[in-house]
Amino acid sequence: MMDEISSHIMDIAANAITAKAKHIEISIMVDTKKSLTTLFFKDDGIGMNDEMVKKVQDPFFSTKTGKKVGLGIPLLKGTAETTGGTFSLTSELGKGVEIQASFRLNHPDLPPIGKLKDTILVLVVGNPEIDFAFRYAVDKSEFIFDTTIIKGLLDGVPVNHPEVVNFIMNYLDEHLQNQID
Ligand SMILES: Nc1ncnc2c1ncn2[C@@H]1O[C@H](COP(=O)(O)OP(=O)(O)OP(=O)(O)O)[C@@H](O)[C@H]1O
Ligand SMILES: [Mg+2]
């Protein structure tokens, strides 16, 4: 079972990578007043048709194509709904996918956020050809990490160059970790 929000993020991002996305947006928004955390994903991969959109949200929904579907999406949906939150997935074939999932912060079954910093690092340096825009916001205070900006500053040096990996690691340590703690 996936018992950390970060694992869900990794899975949804992995789906987008498999779907040939070139730009992946991941936002985590914590609203302390509403006691709600909302995850938002957007990718520009191959997308899904309406039948797939239905099918991937229910692993037991069968279609004539017989294509096996996995559990990443149903697990995220299940976790969100278990905490009293919501889930939505919309897509257009050829355009990409948007997923929104919310979790109630005060629910006893809310999983911990987990290793968000490592998740971001692995995604970014493991997929240097993909652009990631991360946003982590707690109420009005937000942390933004956009690889298009970083890549612009790097002037051709790849994001998986050891010194760059080290820089990103320290940057996330300093700016994201204290946002979470
Ligand atoms: N972002 C996306 N773009 C296009 N298709 C997607 C996307 N995310 C999921 N899919 C499709 O939905 C299917 C189900 O996704 P899901 O994450 O639930 O399972 P999986 O990735 O197949 O397997 P698992 O996550 O269990 O390893 C995928 O196999 C893929 O065909
Ligand atoms: Mg998956």
What does it look like?
With 181 residues, the protein is of the alpha+beta class. The protein has one domain (5-180): Heat Shock Protein 90, CATH 3.30.565. It has helices at 5-18, 50-57, 72-82, 116-126, 147-154, 162-175, 177-180, and strands at 23-31, 36-43, 87-92, 96-104, 131-138, 141-146. A hairpin with a 4-residue loop joins strand 1 (23-31) and strand 2 (36-43). Helix 1 packs antiparallel against helix 3 (72-82) and helix 1 packs parallel to helix 4. The mean pLDDT is 92. It binds adenosine-5'-triphosphate (ATP) and magnesium ion.
The oligomeric status of these chains comes to single chain
Radius of gyration: 17 Å
Examine the secondary-structure arrangement and name the CATH architecture: 2-Layer Sandwich
In total, the number of domains comes to 1
Silhouette: globular
Rounded mean pLDDT is: 92
The CATH class label is Alpha Beta
N- to C-terminal distance: 25 Å
- What percentage of residues falls in helices of 4 or more residues? 25-40%
SSE inventory with pairings:
Layout: H1 5-18, E1 23-31, E2 36-43, H2 50-57, H3 72-82, E3 87-92, E4 96-104, H4 116-126, E5 131-138, E6 141-146, H5 147-154, H6 162-175, H7 177-180
Parallel strand pairs: 1-5
Antiparallel strand pairs: 1-2, 2-4, 3-4, 5-6
The protein binds adenosine-5'-triphosphate and magnesium ion.
The site of magnesium ion has 5 residues, from helix 1.
Brief summary of the model shown:
By secondary structure, this protein is α+β, with helices and mostly antiparallel strands. It has helices at residues 5-18, 50-57, 72-82, 116-126, 147-154, 162-175, 177-180; strands at residues 23-31, 36-43, 87-92, 96-104, 131-138, 141-146. The radius of gyration is 17 Å and the shape is globular.
